[in-house]
UniProtKB/TrEMBL annotation:
Stated name of the protein: Organic solvent ABC transporter
Ranges where the ABC transporter domain occurs: 19-256
Highest taxon, organism lineage: Bacteria
Record region (Disordered): 256-276
Assigned keywords, A-Z: ATP-binding, Nucleotide-binding, Transport
Lineage: Bacteria, Pseudomonadati, Pseudomonadota, Alphaproteobacteria, Rhodospirillales
Biased composition, class Basic residues, residue ranges: 267-276
């Protein structure tokens, strides 16, 4: 895909990036949901991804997390292709990447502390006693008290479940943190707290953070880079400081949340629009 001129600042142009996505194509049957997506970030850099519903944002994060393989293209962490589950990729990507799924994806039957430290228990990094202590510590970071550790997901509010998902995503101090709508459903005070925490983690551990968000204020002001997706493609990607000079009608419409513009509400498959 040829990006518009105003993507000259696309971080994909950086040399030797820590995380690089090259020409990623992902299809489900005949439906191409990622169409030649390229992006890159260095260690410690942060990026917000915005775009209308069904733009492919969640699928992109899942490809980065290794949940989905790619039809074409690559996701490289320090040159190793996780999209193909490259055999030479001995250090498992799960040890390097933490992800908050849009619907949290918590295990209903497990208590919260086991959800939070699931991977660390599974890979033998922590004993169950240590895992429980670590879970309580992580829950504290996201504003949940120790009592919540022994509850089950169904006992928590939607916002509390979201925070458990965030605690799980950061449990193994990932080098890459992928967050699919971390503040959706949270009140403004808590959103602020969570975004501050994400910023602190990125700075302290040089974590590379990619967050999908529907909060345009957060997208504009909290992240180093902004990427706008639509219909499986990157329509604009650049530095936060360059947003105001972008002159990109898709980006402008998305940031304003306007119903007028090139983005229209679409049905399941590309090309069919509810609103012309
Ligand atoms: N497992 C799957 N099988 C088939 N199609 C899928 C699958 N996962 C996603 N899709 C399709 O991929 C497209 C992009 O979905 P995705 O979840 O990435 O959208 P999104 O940008 O995250 O939207 P939203 O903002 O609503 O969360 C949609 O058309 C969706 O139906
Ligand atoms: Mg999504």
């Amino acid at each position: 895909m040829t990006l518009p001129n105003d993507t000259a600042q696309n971080p994909a142009n950086a040399t030797s990036p820590f995380l690089a996505i090259h020409n990623l194509v992902k299809k489900f049957g005949e439906n191409t949901v990622l169409d030649d997506v390229s992006l890159s970030l260095d260690r410690g850099q942060t990026m917000a991804i915005i775009g209308p519903s069904a733009a492919g944002k969640s699928v992109l994060l899942k490809c980065m997390a290794g949940v989905y393989g790619a039809n074409q293209g690559s996701v490289l962490i320090e040159g190793k292709n996780i999209a193909e589950n490259d055999a030479s990729n001995d250090a498992s990507w799960t040890d390097r990447v933490g992800m908050l799924f849009q619907q949290n994806a918590l295990f209903d039957s497990l208590p919260i502390w086991q959800n939070v430290c699931f991977q660390l228990i599974e890979n033998g990094s922590l004993s169950r006693k240590q895992a429980k202590e670590r879970a309580v510590e992580l829950l504290g970071l996201v504003g949940l008290d120790a009592d919540s550790a022994t509850l089950r997901p169904a006992d928590l509010s939607g916002g509390m479940q979201k925070r458990v998902g965030i605690a799980r995503a950061i449990a193994n101090n990932p080098e890459i943190l992928l967050l699919d709508n971390p503040t959706a459903g949270l009140d403004p005070v808590l959103s602020n707290h969570i975004e501050n925490m994400i910023e602190t983690i990125a700075k302290k551990h040089k974590t590379t953070v990619i967050t999908v968000t529907n909060d345009m204020e957060i997208a504009r002001n909290r992240y180093d880079f902004l990427t706008m997706m639509h219909e499986g493609r990157v329509y604009w990607s650049g530095k936060r400081d360059d947003i105001s000079d972008a002159h990109n009608e898709h980006l402008t419409q998305m940031l304003k949340g306007s119903s007028q513009g090139p983005i229209s509400m679409r049905t399941r498959n590309r090309g069919q629009h509810l609103v012309a």
